[in-house]
Amino acid sequence: xxxxxxxxxxxxxxxxxxxxxxxxxxxxxxxxxxxxxxxxxxxxxxxxxxxxxxxxxxxxxxxxxxxxxxxxxxxxxxxxxxxxxxxxxxxxxxxxxxxxxxxxxxxxxxxxxxxxxxxxxxxxxxxxxxxxxxxxxxxxxxxxxxxxxxxxxxxxxxxxxxxxxxxxxxxxxxxxxxxxxxxxxxxxxxxxxxxxxxxxxxx
Length: 203
Hints:
The chain is of the alpha+beta class and 203 residues long. It has one domain. 34% of the residues lie in helices and 27% in strands. The protein has an eight-stranded antiparallel beta sheet, with helices on both faces. A two-stranded antiparallel ribbon has the order 1-2. Helix 1 packs antiparallel against helix 5.
């Protein structure tokens, strides 16, 4: 696995995990009640994607969803990550990058919506998610200018986020399981520090 490919995991750990913690600690009683609406009696509401629950989906089932239901195969990049064309999944999406633990649990699934000079692209993706998952739990920033984040706290350490930096208006849609992301980071670090990957290791 190259350092370039590990960047997606490093970015997710440095940015998304602190954001999850911040979002949970800053919730008011009313926002917590709103987040609670995402829960069903006896457990958490499934995060549906193509007919499977992203909370519990494994690698085999997710690959089947992409291949059979969405008609686009997930192409492995390495032991942890796969990629697919996303143009037929969400309007305006270019690709999707899926990162899973060694055991096949979903850590992150990121859709990329390329854009230049379109500050309202993020709103289009936000509305797309709101139509399925309801209003965001948290919105950070303004659509007109600057960085923007819309976050759905689905409970149980699972979040959905629509975000963009600035001035590049390319927008990213992320489905993130914080527990699995932490596990994935640990596995990547183990791989990086394994003897066969150390500088000077025999080949």
